[in-house]
Amino acid sequence: MQRPFKTFAPLLITALLGAGVTVTVVSLAAMIVGLGRGSLTAQEILPDPLRIPLAVAMATA
Q: Cα–Cα distance between 30 and 19 in angstroms, integer?
């Protein structure tokens, strides 16, 4: 049982990091779009489930 976990853990870590980078890039793009329009913020563009990872990504970045 130990062996599959050792191969799975790096994939999981990579996936989580990739998701964090994706959320950060999307949020930055959303903010740029929001600044271009002048009225929207990233929180208004992104759906609710993405706000928590976004906040975490902003806090850790």
A: 16
Residue partners of 2: CB distance under 8 A and separation at least 6: none
Q: Where are the domains of the chain?
A: 22-61
Closest CA to 51 of 15, 16, 27, 21: 27
* SS3 at position 61: coil
In the predicted structure, residue 14 carries a pLDDT above the cut 80: yes
Mean predicted lDDT score pLDDT of the chain: 68
Q: Which two tokens stand for residue 8?
A: 């799975």
Distance CA 47, CA 42 (A): 9
